[in-house]
Design goal:
Structural class: alpha/beta
Low-confidence stretches: none
CATH class of the largest domain: Alpha Beta
Helix content: 40-55%
CATH architecture of the largest domain: 3-Layer(aba) Sandwich
Shape: elongated
Strand content: 15-25%
Radius of gyration: 31 Å
Order of helices and strands: HHHEEHEHEHEEEHEEEEHEHEEH
Length: 305
């Protein structure tokens, strides 16, 4: 038995609209074509699907069963079409991206022009802030975060590791000495990035692998890392910073890192996006671009200290 799958879609439309005429209008077919499709389906299945009178149509018991299956067939066909569209679809439209303020300024802003050059039909709406955003509630397509994934409705693509470093200006170390152990940190002045939870806690790991927390009172707290870097370079205190914020200064020698053998396990930068059955081409393009620019081993801040 060979059945025309289109006949199932026609039959479903007749049931939903309640008449051959309305179904024909919805499908842009003639009424006679709709009638022939339903009749052919009934003949192929060997059952009556509809009771027809001059005043109304009613669905038979067998028709109700077939209608349920027909709905699934129509939905699967639409899903298959959408899959093909997404695979072959152009990268276009508006892409809403969220990222931490300093990461956006110091890293993302350097590569976004290249991304837009690559995809000229795409518009990027970039929102920089240091709060935890709700991607779905606030309508973001993708976010770059230095954090672990907690929400099961999101998907995370792992990017480069992010080390947390004790850094200060050479002038500070010349004046106050270089700390070598956690106990020696108690003799030093600190400035802290206040946007972090418990900013005064410096998390370390001993060379033998033991985790250690050193809590210090800061002489300065600030919620913007870009404002803090010039103050660090002025030589007033030690800071505890992610490497992507201070790597250029470390490379230039205007800041120096100490106690790198006491570093804790690195954090991870992630590209995070809502879990959907079909990933939009614009989101896939951005995530792939983020891996290209900020993936493990290629991120610009992954320098040997």
């Amino acid at each position: 038995m060979t059945l025309d799958l289109n006949a199932f879609a026609v039959f479903a439309q007749v049931v939903e609209t309640g008449s051959f005429t309305a179904a024909a209008e919805a499908l842009h077919l003639s009424k006679s074509m709709v009638s022939r499709q339903v009749a052919a389906l009934e003949e192929g299945l060997g059952v009556r699907l509809l009771n027809r009178t001059t005043r109304r149509l009613s669905v038979t018991e067998a028709g109700a069963v077939v209608y349920e299956r027909a709905q699934r067939i129509v939905a699967e066909a639409a899903d298959a079409e959408a899959c093909v569209t997404h695979v072959q679809g152009a990268v276009q439209g508006r892409l809403r991206v969220n990222a931490p303020m300093t990461f956006g300024i110091r890293q993302l802003s350097n590569v976004i022009p290249e991304f837009l050059e690559r995809y000229p039909d795409l518009t990027v709406d970039l929102a920089l802030n240091d709060r935890r955003v709700d991607l779905i509630e606030e309508g973001f397509d993708v976010s770059l975060r230095v954090s672990e994934l907690e929400d099961s409705s999101l998907i995370a693509r792992q990017l480069a590791p992010v080390r947390r470093l004790l850094v200060a200006a050479p002038a500070y170390f010349e004046k106050h000495g270089r700390p070598q152990t956690p106990d020696e940190l108690k003799r030093h002045r600190f400035m802290f990035y206040s946007i972090q939870p418990r900013p005064e806690v410096i998390r370390l790991r001993s060379p033998s692998g033991k985790r250690i927390e050193v809590e210090r009172e800061g002489q300065l707290y600030c919620n913007n890392a870009d404002a803090m870097v010039p103050m660090l370079k002025a030589g007033g205190a030690i800071g505890f910073f992610p490497d992507f914020i201070v790597w250029e200064e470390l490379k230039a020698g205007t800041l120096e890192a100490v106690m790198t053998e006491w570093e804790d396990e690195p954090l991870r930068l992630h590209a995070i996006y809502p879990h959907t059955h079909l990933l939009a081409p614009k989101v896939r393009a951005f995530v792939d671009f983020a891996v290209e620019k900020f993936g493990p081993g290629v991120a610009p801040w992954e320098v040997k200290l």
